[in-house]
Amino acid sequence: MLAFRIAAGALTTAALALAQGRGAASPASQAPPKTVTPQTYPAAQIKAGEETFVAQCGFCHGRDAAGGETGPDLTRSSLVATDTRGDMIKPLVRDGRVAEGMPAFKLSDAEINSIVAYIHDQKTQAEGQGGGRRTVQPADLAVGNAANGRSYFNGAGKCSSCHSPTGDLAGVATRYQGLALLQRMLYPTGKPSLARGKVTLTLPSGETEIAPLAAEDEFSITTLDANGARHAYEKSAVKFKIDDPLSAHFDQLGKYSDAEMHNVFAYVDTLK
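Below the sequence we write its predicted structure tokens.
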């Protein structure tokens, strides 16, 4: 059932199928585009790229580059398939696609090169996997108990302290279906390029910084500086206080059991 927990980052057909005991019966998608120019990178560069990618890109594209809340699956990207050592990825990272919600990133050449290495390594691994991915259907996620979810929503989960099925959540399952609804439930952030709330950071040096909060996950916080550049901090390395109502959703991720998460989703899915 772990697949459900990471669904907003990267759902795979195989993981969902195993969660429901369906195995190979689940239909597969078309194979991802093959890399035009196969390329390899040093393990240290890939590892560095993973850390930078997770901090800067993982919130949208998933921690494994296989698709996230608003960003596409990069292991299935035609641009990545035709990229040769960053000739197409680097300009995209530097310039962004602002109209589509992707900001420009002010990263060093070394950081961008490591991101390129990580993305290509993830794509190579994806190409070597048996089977394929497909669009997640609502039936794939319909494994919880709505009645139990309602009890958790109004009780132990304390969801009703901020949300109302006849207020802000009225009709939410009509506006969003399937995976989009699950993503909205777990990470209700809107466009990732827009800051939300603010965070007060106490750095290891003792310096205090107050900045707009751009993104948050279980392990890191990303802020925006005055120029719009993003800066990521590992939660374990700093002291922080977030003034953002959405933080309760990230706190909840660490509290849910798999069954509770299934059940709450099943209940939210009834709010049509």
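The first helix runs from residue 2 to 5.
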